[in-house]
Amino acid sequence: MVAYGAQERVRLPVLRARWLTQTFLHWPYPSEAVQALLPEGLIVDEYDGTAWVGLTPFVMAGVRPPGVPARLPGLPAFAETNLRTYVRRRDGRDGLWFLSLEVAFPPMLAARAVGVPYHPGTLRVSVHGGTVTYEGSRWGGGAAYRLVVRPGGPVAPTERDVWLTSRRRSYTRRLGLLWETPVEHEPWPLAGAAVVGLEETLTAAAGLPAASGEPVAHYSEGVRRVRIGPSRPC
């Protein structure tokens, strides 16, 4: 596995976790279509002259506040899926903008206080016969997805792979303010992935046009030392 990516230091985390069994799907999008969905203060970050949108399902495990041991029995583990794009502030500081987040653990909805667009739902991640299946639907109807991938062997990440997966902060907007949330973890160990099946309505629900072409796909067994810092107004 390959180590890469710049690190963000989080000295006083508010939450620790592991992000496991993660798949990254990425599509290029017209920059103007993505910019129309961004708040004031953020601009589309482009690679090869285009915006990118990522669908990233995974398992969030060992969720705990600082000071609680990772091996404590009963720590929650649950499925989460985010739809995201890549942005910069006007001063050039880059990060993620979440178009939506699906989560199977209602206490995470507390992050709506700083504008994190969580939607509670029924989500499942299962591994069988060399494939990983991710399924989810929002409570009350609406957006849903089903993704089946076949993980491959480790890959040496290209410059584009690094650009897509190495972000260490996210932005949200709430109460007229732009908020920044830092994250620290070890570099992603990336592997190849073949998409066996994909059905989703998350992109349409976010206001995006239909994606064109096959997505760029990666799989990762995950990162195990995630430290999420406090959100702060920019």
Q: Can you give a write-up of this model?
A:
There is one protein chain. The chain has 234 residues and is mainly beta. The protein has a single domain, classed as Acetoacetate decarboxylase-like. Helices cover 7% and strands 53% of the residues. It has three helices and 13 strands. Strands 1, 2, 3, 4, 5, 6, 7, 8, 9, 10, 11, 12 and 13 form a 13-stranded mixed beta sheet that branches. A hairpin with a 5-residue loop joins strand 7 and strand 8. The N and C termini lie far apart (35 Å).
Helix and strand topology:
Blueprint: E1 15-29, H1 31-35, E2 42-44, E3 51-64, E4 78-89, E5 94-103, E6 118-128, E7 131-138, E8 144-154, H2 159-165, E9 169-174, E10 177-184, E11 190-200, H3 202-205, E12 216-228, E13 232-233
Parallel strand pairs: 5-6, 5-9
Antiparallel strand pairs: 1-3, 1-12, 2-4, 3-4, 4-5, 6-7, 7-8, 8-11, 9-10, 10-12, 10-13, 11-12
**Through-space gap between termini:** 35 Å
Return the domain count: 1
Overall pLDDT: 94
Q: Please give the radius of gyration in angstroms.
A: 17 Å
CATH T-level fold name: Acetoacetate decarboxylase-like
Q: At CATH's second level, what is the architecture?
A: Beta Barrel
Question: How would you concisely characterize the structure shown here?
Answer:
The protein has 234 residues and is mainly beta.
Output the keywords.
234 residues; 13 strands
